């Protein structure tokens, strides 16, 4: 039995997220089905994280166990031959038995793209949040680093009663948090040791309030301390979010 690791990119627009769901197209389900067609085995890939419906990935990491004798490198070509155009396998390798794509991860990087021009090109619309309205981008840049360090990010997590009942921690460490300006885009990049459900999109929605002048940059610290989701901003649309890479 081999433990095989895939690095996968996908356009999440037409999927109901990563995780398998009944009667819905998901990345995990589509990838697992394709592997099964090649190996003849029933497999369920495990991912480094559960991206939401509409969220994209440039380098998601997934593993599966297989007794197949197919050479590892052949999985890239074979899977790309049968997967839909919205999913692409970038690399395959055999990893130690104890490697787990989520539990073994040391850091992840997410990127969020906001398109700032008045008219968004149709071919970009699925991959950005079109927001052409006035924003104080300097204030947003000043605010972003305030979440760096180890904090309880309950204020920026989707409300999940199950987590509370199970006593799971909402403490995460953020290594870097910053905005940069492209020619027509405002781009947020955040790197941390882990992220909660909707955390990055809720951070973006809150930082947008700073740009609109509704919040002062320093208020991000107060919002963190309240540990109350209602204290933060609305959830930004899924279309602008990308899982960029996972570090081990």
Write up this protein:
The model has no long low-confidence stretch (mean pLDDT 96). The longest helix has 14 residues, at 199-212. The chain contains six helices and ten strands; from the N terminus they run βαββαβββαβαββααβ. The protein is an alpha+beta fold. The protein has two domains: 2-95, Pseudouridine synthase I, catalytic domain, N-terminal subdomain (Alpha-Beta Plaits, 2-Layer Sandwich); 107-247, 2-Layer Sandwich (Alpha-Beta Plaits). Helix 1 (27-39) packs across helix 2 and helix 3 packs across helix 5. It has helices spanning 27-39, 74-82, 137-143, 161-166, 199-212, 219-226; strands spanning 2-10, 46-47, 56-66, 87-95, 107-115, 129-130, 149-152, 171-181, 185-192, 241-247.
Taken from the alpha-carbon principal axes, the silhouette is globular
Q: What do we call the CATH homologous superfamily of the largest domain? A: Pseudouridine synthase I, catalytic domain, C-terminal subdomain
Largest sheet: 10 strands, mixed
Portion of residues in beta strands equals 25-35%
Helical stretch tally: 6
The stretches of 5 or more residues where confidence is low (pLDDT under 50) are: none
**CATH topology value of the largest domain:** Alpha-Beta Plaits
* Category from helices, strands and their pairing: alpha+beta
Helical residue percent? 10-25%
What is the CATH architecture term of the largest domain? 2-Layer Sandwich
Q: What is the radius of gyration computed over CA atoms, rounded to a whole number of angstroms?
A: 19 Å
Mean pLDDT: 96
Q: SSE order in H/E notation?
A: EHEEHEEEHEHEEHHE
Strand segment count: 10
CATH C-level class of the largest domain is Alpha Beta
Number of domains: 2
Distance between the termini: 22 Å
